[in-house]
Write a structure and sequence with these properties.
The structure is a homotetramer of 216-residue chains. The first copy, chain A, contains nine helices and six strands. With 216 residues, chain A is α/β, with parallel strands linked by helices. At the A-B interface, helix 1, helix 2, helix 3, strand 2 and helix 4 of A face helix 1, helix 2, helix 3, strand 2 and helix 4 of B. Chains A, B, C, D: Reversible hydration of carbon dioxide.
Chain lengths: 216, 216, 216, 216
């Protein structure tokens, strides 16, 4: 641990700039949020991708969105096996403790995780098949979707199709978590699927009744 | 799935506002990022808490930070058991595919997850002890830290102490991932621990040599 | 002129921070605006006051608002006497060259200029009466309004009343500029009066038909 | 005045969006600024041009910059003739009442006002020569600069040269205001000239000792 030291200078510089010049306008807001606790209305499950600008898109003010970000915005199936499950823990905390009213699963175009899944399932990246590939095993969550898109010939259309399958798989898996199912059945929680084209930031939302995405 | 429909109207309104009035200034930047792919310099592992304003703090422009967010910003121990491990997958993708130069573990004050761990370990929340409590089993990652702070009498000092122990545990666990260890040993990657007081946004950084946090 | 040197360091630091970290997202937008020329849809006439955050309020993107700012957001009467008239020049350029569709006169609470006019007209600040007081002579534009509010006993109500009188005087003066009158008559231009309470940023708009301000 | 009504709907929509979603974070800051009064450290004299993003460039928080904006960011010569002089009034208020420490005259590339002055002085726009052209009479302030650049053959180089001459003329005129001269002599006030290329937002600052602009 002797090698862990301070912050990269460029990030420290920016923090100090922000702290001195931007933060003062909001300091009372932050102080009150710390004192009263958070009351986010919605949870967003999004990708770690540096190009997915969630807080900008929704004009979010600090304290409004509870955000879980993982590779390819996946929700694995419910597995109460006593092991560590970060995504499930985040969802449970959002639903049971914070009592959020909405969960949004937000996918996006040009997703490296989705592309990795296609490569893995079509034999172009054997390293991802290894048992100890953490990325590969995580992307297994997306495998059922691959079967449904594998016959699409155009590579970029196939990729978008799997990005959207992933959102549906995650929504279905979410409904498999008993506390999510109960909250949805009781009308306390709504689930939403959205897909963003990160090249023009167009947004499509998922309509579960017809199982289709459409533009907004 | 028939109940999954569109977006909550208030979020849709804000998206459309942003898309029409703010996005145009950056559209070419987004288009190029989509085309050329992301090249983030750093990964941040932070909490899902709606009050943790990472992208603001670091004056981040779209495309700079690869962000994983989970409850209490934890990194579980390396477990190559073939199961789904979202945090490990995100770290592996950041280090091996994106080749980020820095990983920041960012903790914060008033953390509901850390408070939950204290309640669980001190017998005040038995529900978290159940095998099927996803939150409880996730917070098990933080248990070794509880033993080191349990004798602190003042509740809020104990809480901050455990928030900081959590950062150290995560940094140590990170070094247990073979691909992280190799990158750090080769000088390709540096690890950093920071703790933010969300009531005044003061930042403390961790100095591994003396195992202590100090103000910036 | 030998004393004129560079920039105050704190402003240079912030410029460089902005240039390096924020500007890149918008650089293509700026480049195109420079190349194609500005096409602002509206002109705003506002106060120089550092607390009047026009561009924030209207979610303005660069290139949308043509902004003239002077003490107390005043438009003097039309005076084609061959002398320098900065406000009239700005209005003429906006209407004849840029062909803006709207002119907003935006007043605000706690206006030091308006307070100065009250002090001057009620004998509490004789310096402002001197012929060579540039501030005093500028505030003469507001004098006709003082007569209409001078009998209001409550000082802060009188102040707000004069702030709103000032907006109406400026709107009336605007209609005295022949190129403004013509554009309004032809339906090419609309005039608007707004008053902002800078303590809570509430906005009131002026309805010319009933000569009254009302909340939005 | 019966035609003056409310706000253009698109601006009202944006105001309401800002008021509801962005303003709450800063409301306490605004409230205190209203209560305590403004204390801006610097005054900026800039152009009305919609592409000159002053508050962005200097990472300004509300309350920091006192801003006067007119066509071509000009300061006319000191004229204590008892008439309305908006620019002089703004400067006097900044120096004597607010006691700002710095005045920045900020010019920019692609300035329509400067181009208009060139057209007027070189016989290409006779309308600007009319006595009642408010734009033309305002641009007379810049005329002495035209004589110094008129022999430059390349049109765009001549334009930039006049933009920079204008900044110097304004700085010299500023020193002709007795209250400015005194404050500078006493070391209470510094003057600064900057020129921004709005196509790439590069900034040049004026060094009075060598009478030259150089990059930052």
């Amino acid at each position: 641990m002797h090698r862990v030291k301070s912050l990269p200078q460029y990030l420290l510089d920016r923090y100090q700039e922000w702290k001195e010049h931007t933060f003062p306008e909001s300091q009372e807001w932050f102080r009150q949020l710390a004192e009263k606790g958070q009351r986010p209305r919605a949870m967003v499950i999004a990708c770690c991708d540096s190009r997915v600008a969630i807080t900008s898109i929704f004009g979010q003010r600090t304290g409004e969105l509870f955000v879980h970000r993982n590779i390819a915005n996946l929700v694995p199936p419910y597995t109460p096996d006593g092991q560590h499950h970060g995504t499930g823990a985040a969802v449970q905390y959002a639903v049971e403790t914070l009592k959020v009213q909405h969960i949004l699963v937000m996918g996006h175009s040009h997703c490296g995780g989705v592309r990795g899944c296609i490569d893995m399932c079509s034999g172009k990246n054997d390293a991802l098949l290894e048992k100890d590939s953490l990325v590969g095993r995580w992307l297994d969550v997306l495998r059922p979707g691959f079967d449904r898109v594998k016959d699409i010939e155009d590579a970029s259309i196939r990729e978008v199709a799997l990005e959207k399958e992933g959102i549906q798989i995650s929504l279905e898996n979410l409904l498999g978590y008993p506390f999510v199912k109960r909250a949805v059945d009781d009308g306390r929680l709504t689930l939403h699927g959205i897909w963003a084209d990160i090249s023009d930031m167009g947004l499509e939302t998922f309509d579960g009744a017809v199982r289709r995405f459409s533009h907004n």
